[in-house]
Amino acid sequence: MKAVIQRVLKASVSIGGNIHSAIHNGVMVLLGIEDADTEEDISWLSQKIVQLRIFNDEEGVMNISLKDSSGDILLVSQFTLHASVKKGNRPSYIKASKPGIAIPLYEKMIRRLEADLGKPVKTGVFGADMKVALINDGPVTIIIDTKNKE
């Protein structure tokens, strides 16, 4: 799994001109799923997202986790995170899972994040043409690949 995690003041997903989901103060997570992803990837990534100390304490130091800050999560599936541009100029998405594999893993990630965070997670709609808006706070943006845990 690949995730782009952005600390936000606010974020929203609109579909067909209507706001589907929105959060204030939290993280926007773009999630890419590949066939090799497992429940272990879901568990590890969920814990990492919820426990990342990327929120400022009273001294302005990033020392507080999402969970401890009472922040929210907006989770959006994004197969393009698995784009390969090795050959040519048209990205290949061969590594991105097809919906039959990706949707169940995406739904498991939602449930795991909700359990780890202790509250509902806002989401986009898998496969929909979504318009994503956000105000990145900081900016703070972290990229995580569960196959390369750095």
How many individual β-strands? 7
Order of strands, main sheet, comes to 6-5-2-1-7
Report the total helices.
3
Contiguous low-pLDDT stretches (5 residues minimum) are none
Q: Summarize model confidence as the mean pLDDT.
A: 95
The largest sheet is: 5 strands, mixed
Total domains: 1
Distance between the termini: 13 Å
Class in CATH?
Answer: Alpha Beta
CATH superfamily: D-tyrosyl-tRNA(Tyr) deacylase
Looking at the structure, what is the overall shape?
globular
Structural class, by secondary structure, is alpha/beta
CATH architecture: 3-Layer(bba) Sandwich
CA-atom Rg in angstroms? 15 Å
Strand proportion: 35-45%
SSE pattern, N- to C-terminal: EEHEEHEHEE
- For this structure, the CATH topology is D-tyrosyl-trna(Tyr) Deacylase, Chain: A
The share of residues in helices is 10-25%
Name a few traits of the molecule.
five-stranded mixed β-sheet, D-tyrosyl-trna(Tyr) Deacylase, Chain: A, 150 residues, alpha/beta
Plain-language structure description:
The chain is of the alpha/beta class and 150 residues long. The chain has a single domain, classed as D-tyrosyl-trna(Tyr) Deacylase, Chain: A (3-Layer(bba) Sandwich). It has helices at residues 39-51, 66-69, 99-117, and strands spanning 2-15, 18-32, 53-56, 62-65, 72-77, 122-123, 130-145. Strands 6-5-2-1-7 form a 5-stranded mixed beta sheet. It has a two-stranded antiparallel ribbon with strand order 3-4. Strand 1 and strand 2 (18-32) form a beta hairpin. Helix 1 (39-51) crosses helix 3. The longest helix has 19 residues, at 99-117. The chain is globular and about 50 Å long. It starts with a strand and ends in a 5-residue tail after the last strand.
